[in-house]
## 1
Amino acid sequence: MSTQLLTYLFVGLSFALYIGIAIWSRAGSTRDFYVAGGGVNPVVNGMATAADWMSAASFISMAGIISFMGRDGSVYLLGWTGGYVLLALLLAPYLRKFGRFTVPDFIGERYYSKVARVVAVVCLIFVSFTYVAGQMRGVGIVFSRFLEVDVTTGVIIGMAVVFMYAVLGGMKGITYTQVAQYCVLIFAYMVPAIFISIMITGNPIPQLGFGSEVADGSGLSVLEKLDGVSKDLGFSAYTEGSKSTIDVFAITAALMFGTAGLPHVLVRFFTVPKVSDARKSAGYALAFIAILYTTAPAVASFARLNLVDTVHNTSYEQAPQWFSNWESTGLVGWEDKNNDGVMQYSAGTDNEVKIDRDIMVLANPEIANLPGWVIALVAAGGVAAALSTAAGLLLVISSSISHDLLKQTLMPKITEKQELLFARMAAAVAVCIAGLFGIYPPAFVAQVVAFAFGLAAASLFPAIVLGIFSKRINKEGAIAGMLMGLIFTFTYIVYFKFAAPELNNADYWLLGISPEGIGLVGMLLNFAAAFTVSRFTAPPPKQVQDLVEDIRIPSGASAASYH
């Protein structure tokens, strides 16, 4: 059976599975739609959380970034994993104790203000739409290569599938779909990693292969070989970075705190029966996530070695099949600058080969000449990773609009049936907008996602943390902080990425911090504004202070109260 046919088969079967689960678990109430009825098993929720959190950025783009940037790319690895630990240990149990459906719901109740709720909804929409743009782009990239359609058509197909199970099933459908997607994506990530690790190092465990000697008789380790290859091509050593220490710190911190403020991950902890189950599911999710994240550096290094071996100083007429396959998508290309018919891959202006970093994981099996079923499996995994996160994001957008904006603020008299209808309508509109972002993305996948995390760190994270751990922060302080953080960070990103991209370098950045890391500064401004304004305005009411005191004692075995 041809690779193309296998790809259609694997992707088609996975789509049928996802839609079947959505129909089986169709949401019949707002509680089903928002939090899957609140009765999800911790192991199931842990697996669903892992799929929700490991987006197209994790599956498709992260290893590509590390592959091209070397040590500098590790900020994504450190930031995302560190952030998840922060979320799981610091925030999830407390929010679960509070028992609200959505993050704006928590903020609106804690800060006793409809204005605070609406501001939180605005922040959430900014974060979620920025994040979902990267996911839909990931879907488009997968489809453009493996289903041989253009990126736009690929995005539209992805929109249709997400619409089916996100709008029909709500959180209940998404949860069980994400369990299936986790199984697909982790299998798809690990199988080629094991194959390639054996080929390059002789070690079947990628995490160990990463630190082993290359099986070419040179006696060099993988990293030593990479350092030498990178220097020979005019790049800096793979294990050396070019980013400043302040920028590395800022990006890592922004990704960490942004992860801890991501609304689509936080809401997952509202789907389990008890506070103790929230802690358990956080631990399970961390274990499931670790499988991919400990493998990513190995995948990145193997991909880089294979790329150089198969492309550099190779005649274009004898170009490997994978290069021709991806060339048709426009994501790789060759320009013969010296008219010698040979592809030269190097640093600087003499480079003739264009490689989109978002393709590295997807192309890795082809570069390594692995069997067709492995290539098809990776295609299905890439789609699963992107769609799982896209669905979670679309759900929090729709629930925030229907529950927080309409039910709790603008239209309090609507029935549960009407609220559920509005939630589905909001999800449908969100799918369409997300698709447009996927067709016209602002940057490569992981970078778009980094912007989303920066916005989350600058706007939602301080309000959540202060809402749990400070009795003195009032509604005025929270609103001022969220607006300060969001406006500053969004303006900074837009200015350097769109308004004046020619100035997007360290000479013009504030304190030498790039747009990917500016969320840290936005977060600090948020904290400063919240504390300052709260100090000069009235403290929160006594019942709110008592509520905070109660939340801070998360009695592990007790059921959360839904008020």
## 2
Amino acid sequence: MKNFKIALAQFSPHIGNIDANTQKMIEQINAAKLQQADLIVFPELSTLGYPADDLLLRPNLQKRTQKAFAQLSEIKDIVIVFGFVHQTEDGQRYNSAAVMKDGQILGIYNKQNLPNYSVFDEKRYFQSSHQHLVFEYLGHKFGVLICEDVWSLPIVKQLSQLNVETVLVLNSSPYEVGKPQHRIQTLNELAKQLHLNIVYVNQVGGQDDLIFDGSSFVNNHNGTLALQAPSFQEAVYVAEFDAEQKQFKTAENPPALETFAEIYQALVMATRDYVQRSGFPGVILGLSGGIDSALTLAIAVDAIGADKVQALMMPYTYTAKMSVEDANEQARRMGVTFGIAEIHPIVNSFMQTLYPFFGNTPADATEENLQARTRGTLLMGLSNKFGNLVLSTGNKSEISVGYCTLYGDMVGGFNVLKDVYKTIVFELAKYRNTLGETPVIPERVITRPPSAELRPDQKDQDSLPPYDVLDAILYAYIEEDASQADIIAKGYPADVVEKVITLVDRNEYKRRQGAIGPRISSRAFSRERRYPIVNGWTAND
């Protein structure tokens, strides 16, 4: 047996674009060959991309997949392990991996463990299998698994009993905070327990509301980490197996990302991929002088460049002078196109038109919402005229309790902070200001009390508990599924807990109409938290 090299293709597919994905795979294969790689491993369903949802049901999928196989079969002098949709003659559909060398299929593996929880819905589309794939190359015995398979101890044990030395794992594992570290730690223990080398290759890139972080790695059979690829970067990384030592050589790995750096990079990548792959020339957002829009602007600029970002300040009677100043200053520091549109005449016109209907009824949230809806209308008008995508700027705390206006500040096609609690928004803003010599977000934006500025001297805490309290209650109720009684038992005031939970439950209808946004938690308002809008469940049940 001699030394060999395995290339980990940390790959960002364009979902559904099999032709483009195949060409990119070929480019990465050629890059791997330049580094003298003997094998290259791609992520799960790499030809089509993951998740493809009902694209998997398209009648010409097999024909397009066959074309990809024909193109990949022209590759010589390297073993290719890649994911694809395997449709059998008897009409079965599998989430599969192919092992190919010099145009010949050495084996096909069909995924055994189909996830059907959280964001996953694989049982809707695929059949499960119960057979392993083992192949020998360069005097070394390899096994193949796909994503969820490696988290099933019985499946991995069965494979280890076939005298496999290295397991190649193809993955499309979505990101959430802390998950990259969890994967490495867990599979390190598994590698050590079963005396297996594990090559873990993960998809990277943003796909609608999902983020794939990459963070591919190689674990040696003794539980040591041989290679770790950087998160959120598409590239080819090569691990070398030392035949004499019977393990992979340890590479110089990047330092682990601090939590807020990790989240920030995830949001930047998700925004970039959504905007670019949707074909928008740029983005536009309302810059209010508050922290949510300030952070959204910074992320947008870092994602697609200042030249493709437009910010609009839309002051009204209750907009503080400092808000206009801070918005203008941040736009200047970041070099984006910036404009100010006074909304007094529009809002006043609405008021006059509605006066015969409203009469002398006391002013309430209705009048406040007219301001927000005016701003939403202007942003959509500019979007329609020039083609830029509107970014909405609400955070998870506000969206959870409905502290947002339908057809107002909720207007937009992508909500960058949708799954980011307000307390985290502050930390991300502070983090972004450390990345350059000059802070891009004015300090006053971070330190002043948050306000929607829809009425005189308004503060968020006039309507909501302090954000540290609110976010703790929300986390317990949404992420942990804690009951009202359980949350009160943690020491939070009963009336506050009841109010917050009531607001969360009542505002499901709003969230259904909001823009999608990148998922960073285990329980985002998207695929994994689906509640009926109309229901009779009560908070104290």
## 3
Amino acid sequence: MHKTLSTNDYIVFFLYFITIVGYGLWIYNRKKKEQASSKEYFLAEGSLTWWAIGASLIASNISAEQFIGMSGSGFKLGLAIATYEWMAALTLVFVAIFFMPVYLKNKISTMPQYLNQRYNGNVAMIMAVFWLLLYVLVNLTSILYLGALAVSSISGLNITLCMVFLALFAVMITLGGMKVIGYTDVVQVFFLILGGLATTYLALNLVSEKFGTTGVINGFNLMPEKADGHFHMIFDKSNPNYMDLPGLSVLIGGMLIMNFNYWGCNQYITQRALGADLKTARSGILFAAFLKLLMPIIVVLPGIAAYVLYQNGSFQTELLQDGSLNPDRAYPVLLNLLPTGLKGLSFAALTAAIVASLAGKANSIATIFTLDVYKKKLNVEASEQKLVNIGKMTIIAAMIIAVIVAPFLGIDKKGGFQYIQEYTGFVSPGVFAMFILGFFWKKTTSNAAMFAMIGGFLMSIVFKFMPHFVDLSFLNGMGFSVPNAEGVYEIPFMDRMGFVFLICVIGMYLISIYETQRGVKTNGLDVDKSMFKVSPGFTVGSLIIVAVLAALYTFFW
């Protein structure tokens, strides 16, 4: 496989690099006077527009695990993997209506601050440490490693060199603070979508040419015909991929918990909107939801196209890694077929996605460490300037740790997308239970939250290893267990999340009832019904999203 970029591709890429860094510096210098406070630095308080918030949400979310991992999953599973994107669009609508008003009304700027305000300092501190470990050792490392793997496979450069370059690029963006991240993300998303569409266009053209026609429309129409099994959204339990996407759970079970935790209870994501007023935040989140509907076109379709081509004799050697088929190679293989210049643009788009995600994640790590650990425990009297400096040092330290640790975690062995989903899934049910009950049920106590956080994590581990000790074949009839490669019945991880969430909610309810009857006082939030009213424009936008989703799932069921 041809693995190098031409001189013109490098020119296109470096022009992109200079544009982003130059634009970031311009924003930083223009807004420098306003950047005196820590909140301004970490949250870009009041200065991000709705389109900057929406674009930044997508740029932070879409990274190498989507481009590489989701295209690979598109190759293996088909269109069903798009449920991660499409269900996220619906989740974002709910987050905008019900979550954002609670955060903004109660002046929440970080997720541990919410936990401190609603429960107590112990819950907040334990969770802050939890998040820091998860963000640095799972998210930052996997984005960095997978990104470097992708960049290396296209450019032919050494993987360690690629990791260092990506880390440096991300640090340059991140040190400018949230405002620089937000506005550079708008440019990053533009390139990301443009480069992504170029790759999809090429892939669909290749399909049509393979079968003696021309044009992307013909290519798209041929795919369901040639790979019918790859165009079903809901799997039954006889499907070999049921373990990854277990039937209706992708609509009403674990997928919802995962999405609500990711989009509603996650510093990394909510940070984009926390510095805005409610109307701007909602408009930004709705814009992100519309972009989410389009994402499968650029991250899933190329993978399915590569599968159709592979099944019909193309890429027989290019998709092999160590002698066996590796679906995660589908996207880089297609990228390498792009014409000169366009290849550089798509390479820039991939780099944009990686750097934007790294920058967003590093900013969140710095925000949580500075405002919730350093300011609370290490230096209560710290000046605003001191906090900003500590934030910058944290960004550099987190990136160095990620570069050192990433090669030793076996991220590539598991498949990047699955690696992130599964390990985040250990904490998601407990965190979401703790947040949602804290929002809407004033009797929820601190001990109940502690039970969800620690108990939820321990239960996730128990459910993970249960098949080694207990025969779970009795759950097969209901679709809650399927045999793995060794013939052992396992619970799909999405269903595990659903079970753990239900246990957390029941446990929290019982603990809270018991404690409030004994006179324990709780810290309820300022919540009233009027907060959840939305504008007519938002209502129309939300209904369009629901209608599009209903049509997609009906058509591809």
